[in-house]
Amino acid sequence: MKRSVVITVCCILLAAPSMPEASDPSSGIRRLGYAIQMGAFADVKNAERFTTALQKKGIEAFYFRKDNGIYAVRFGDFPSREKARAAAARLVADHLIDGYYVAPPNEVVFKAPKEPGLQKSPVEEIRQTREPKRTEQPRSPESAIKQARHGDRDMGAIAARTAERFVGIPYRWGGDTVVDGMDCSGFVRAVYNLCGVSIPRTSRDQFKAGEAVTRPDLQDGDLVFFGAADDKINHVGIYVGNGKFVHAPRRGEEIRITPIDESYFEKRFVGARRYF
User: Fold this and answer.
1) How many H helices and E strands in the chain?
2) Highest mean pLDDT: which of 3-7, 79-83, 102-106?
3) How far apart are CA 40 and CA 68, in angstroms?
4) Residue 24 burial (CB < 10 Å; 0-12/13-18/19+)?
5) 235 is catalytic
6) Which residue has the higher pLDDT, 136 or 259?
């Protein structure tokens, strides 16, 4: 079937080298390389099915809703624009996709508004930060993370506003074999991916990375964790201000905004982490 061919070719293409891991493997935080964006799905379930098929083949892909209401799928982590373009060009040459978009490492997908809160009016879909001097040599994780902290304007706020864009979208990650809790961590990982930063896959590993933040010091973009204890974390969300966070509640349910002091989460709050 044509879908099988697409997945097979994608697997081959995505074997390209990726950006180096951080010098401290336990941190799991690094700046992403170039990615391939494809698809124009009007129905979220079509985007979901295509993404799930990629994930089942070992390709870490995710979908998101653009400002025009159409869903796109993004995947890959290439060390240079040329490698990403070459991989995508092979898909086009094989008539497997009609077009593609190479997302650069310094891209911010959604513009951060001046004020926090769920944005209902469309804004410009793609905003790029100041273009650095062109070089295809991967930056060191230390310098990349330093740029994320100091070179980008309030990336935490951008992460929070990006998370709000997912509100109302039903999410399922990793097909039917995903373990409990992977949907919520997959969601926050996708948000950070759109902000150009890779964080660990599971909520427990995400909790081990980043900078510890106390509840009174929470800022937009921080991750908030819930569970029975520090070593029994089973849920994570993205703080968006005013004592609220965005998260994927259960498999297949819509992404939503919930107060941290809601009874269920109040009792299970175990801490927060900051990655920018």
Assistant:
1) 8, 14
2) 79-83
3) 10
4) exposed
5) yes
6) 259
Tell me if 78 sits within 8 A of 15, measured CB to CB.
no
Sign for the CA dihedral angle at 197, 91, 172, 45 comes to positive
What percent helix, strand, coil does the chain show, rounded to 5?
30, 25, 45
**Helix 2-13 and helix 81-93, axial crossing angle in degrees, nearest 10:** 160
Burial of residue 212, with CB atoms counted within 10 A of its CB: 0-12 exposed, 13-18 middle, 19 or more buried: exposed
Helix (H) / strand (E) containing 245: strand 244-247
Residues 6+ apart with CB under 8 A from 79: 16, 17, 18, 19, 33, 34, 136, 138
Model confidence at 94, in pLDDT bands (50, 70, 90)?
confident
Helices (H), ranges, the chain: 2-13, 44-56, 81-93, 141-150, 155-164, 182-194, 203-208, 263-268
Helix, coil or strand: residue 66: coil
74 and 53 in contact (C-beta within 8 Å)? no
Catalytic residue among 10, 11, 150, 247: 247
Contact of 101 with 87, CB cutoff 8 Å? no
**Which of 10, 11, 95, 184 is labelled catalytic?**
184
Question: How many other CB atoms are there within 10 angstroms of residue 211's CB atom?
Answer: 11
Question: Is the pLDDT score of 138 beyond 60?
Answer: no
Among residues 10, 150, 195, 235, which one is catalytic? Answer: 235
> Residue 31, exposed/middle/buried by CB under 10 A (0-12, 13-18, 19+)?
buried
Q: Which amino acid, residue 73? A: V
Cα distance between residue 148 and residue 185, in whole Å: 21
- Whether 247 sits among the annotated catalytic residues: the reply is yes
